[in-house]
Amino acid sequence: MLTKRIIPCLDIKDGRTVKGVNFLGLMDAGDPVELAQRYSLEGADELVFLDISATQEKRKTLVELVQRIAAEITIPFTVGGGIKTVEEIEKLLKAGADKVSLNSSIVRRPELITEASQAFGAQAIVAAIDAKRVEGWTEEDPQWEVFTHGGTKKTGINALEWAKNVAFLGAGELLVTSMDRDGTKAGFDNELLFGIHQSTTIPLIASGGAGTILHCIEAIKKGKADAVLAASIFHFKEIEISELKLQMQKAGIPSRITK
Q1: Which of 86, 181, 185, 232 has the highest local Cβ count within 10 Å?
Q2: Does some domain include residue 258?
């Protein structure tokens, strides 16, 4: 079995790391360059940087900040937020990103996935899906809708079908965030994760809801995630990455242990 990854996430707004609940009520969580450097040293497997206001404010992801972060870390680095073209992807990869995360732009123009995958390889293209349970859902028929623009715009698109579609178009990985669980620390939406796992064959990153070590273990065991992404529990040192990896190994989940 491949090792399962732990991925801290830096949600960036106006050059600072922020964190909220259900995509709302953002509070400052620190300097992104300092946090990135800390996570690289603490044994994180990868890092995700999301400029969460880039699409809403119709501006490009901060390339300079990407360069500064890339210069301070030794782990793979994914960048997302407001990326609309192959040319913008190329700039970010040249600035030091290993992968790019695409969300709103691929809902608007799905062929961007194929264009980017052909230009840079599927391994560099992460399809991000912000999903929320549909009102009136039932245990017998749970459904999730895709949202864009930082979780502010409904699309009417079924999340499981969309995951299948982006994988077919050439995405190399999925970053699936439960908007219902985001920032709540109530645990991941493992039903959503497992549904997407059954619909696709590409690696799946779980996001939204991490509060305890058990939550992370369950996302991998029950949700069948290949990686667990979290923000505040790492930013505020509620959970140490080294301890999380140790407990994962005790639970029979292979992980990369660093000294």
Answers
A1: 181
A2: no
- The answer to whether position 39 is within a domain reads yes
Which residue's entry shows tokens 């709302």? 24
- Buried residues in 67-88 as b, exposed as e (16+ CB within 10 A): eebbebbebbbbbbbbbbeeeb
Full domain range(s) for residue 159: 5-250
Determine whether 49 is exposed, middle or buried from the number of CB atoms within 10 Å of its CB (0-12, 13-18, 19+). Answer: buried
- Looking at the annotation, which residues are catalytic? 11, 130
Tens digit of each residue's pLDDT (9 = 90 or more) over 111-143: 999 999 999 999 999 999 999 999 877 777 789
Number of domains in the chain: 1
Nearest to 128 by CA among 182, 205, 36, 45: 205
Which amino acid, residue 162? W
Q: State the CATH number of the domain containing residue 14.
A: 3.20.20.70
Is residue 21 a contact partner of residue 52, using CB atoms and an 8 Å limit? no
Q: Is residue 259 part of a domain?
A: no
